Amino acid sequence: MKLINPKLIASILGTASLALTLTAFPTATQASDTFSDSEISGPTGYFKSSKAQFAFHWKNLKTDSGVQTILIFGDFHKPQIQLGMPSLNNISKDRKTFTSEYKFISSKGKLLTQKYYFPIKKLSDNSYQIHLAYHDGARVPSANGKSYVFTKSAASPAKSYAHKYSAKVLKKEYTLQLQASAEKQYRKEKAKGKRVSDPATNKTMQKKIAKRANAAVAKSVKQIIKGFNYSDSSK
Fold first, then answer.
1. Which residues make Cβ contacts (< 8 Å) with residue 156, sequence separation at least 6?
2. Residue 234 forms part of a structural domain
3. Which domain-ending residue is among 155, 185, 210?
C-alpha cells in the first residue's frame, strides 16, 4: 500500500525534484526531564549526536489527503537518508522512555511490511540515550546496537553535519572514482600505443579531478540537507 507519493519520497531522498506541494507544521521543543502526553505522536525538534554523526526527527506533513507523519533518519557519516512511517508510539509509566514502532518506506513510496522499534530514554533535561544499528547499509535508531547520548534542538543540524561529516566521506569517494576512471582511460589509450601522461603524476589532471570532485560534493551535500530537512530550494 502506498501512503506517500513516490515523487515526494524521491525528493526527500535527494533523487528527484520536489513535485508535490506540502506544508510542514511548525515545531517547538519544551524542557522537561520526562516525556509529556503531547509528545505521543512524536517529540518535536531534532535529535542529534555529533559523536555518532547522526540525526533524526519526526515530520508532520499536510497533504491533500490529510496529515501524514514520517520519520527522517540521517546517517551523515554514510551518508544516507532513510524514511519510516510511525505505526505506534508509547510512553513508559515513569515517562522516562519513549518508544516508537514504525515501518520503513521504500524509495518508490511503498510501506514495507516488517515492523521496527526503538526506545528513547530521557537521561536529563536535554540528553537522551539512543541505540543505533545498521539497516540497508546505514544506521538507524534501534532497540539494540551501539549506545549514544543525543541532544535535541529546535534548529536542524543538517547543514552543519553535512558539511562537517558527509563532505569528507563524499570527497574521498568521488576522488577515488574519478582517479580510477582516469587510470582506466590512461591504460586504454596506452594499450593503443598512444603517448599519454599518467594521470596519477600529472598535476593538471589531478587539479581537474579535484575540481570535479568538489563540484560533486557540493551538489550531494545540498541534496542531503534538503532531503533531511524536507525543505524547498528557497530555504
1. 46, 55, 57, 228, 229
2. no
3. 155
- 38 and 141: one domain? yes
What is the length of the chain? 235
Same domain? For 92 and 146 the reply is yes
Residue 218 identity: A
Distance CA 96, CA 137 (A): 30
pLDDT score, position 32: 72
- Same domain for 92 and 14, yes or no, is yes
Mean pLDDT by 10 residues, the chain (235 residues): 50 37 39 85 95 96 82 96 95 96 91 96 95 94 97 97 97 95 92 90 94 96 94 41
**Cα 130 to Cα 132: distance, rounded to the nearest angstrom:** 7
Domain co-membership, 42 together with 141: yes
Helix (H, G, I), strand (E, B) or coil at 64: coil
All residues at 6 or more sequence positions from 167 whose CB lies less than 8 Å from its CB, including other chains: 217, 221
Q: Going along 92-205, which residue ranges are E strands?
A: 97-105, 111-124, 127-135, 138-142, 146-153
Number of domains in the chain: 2
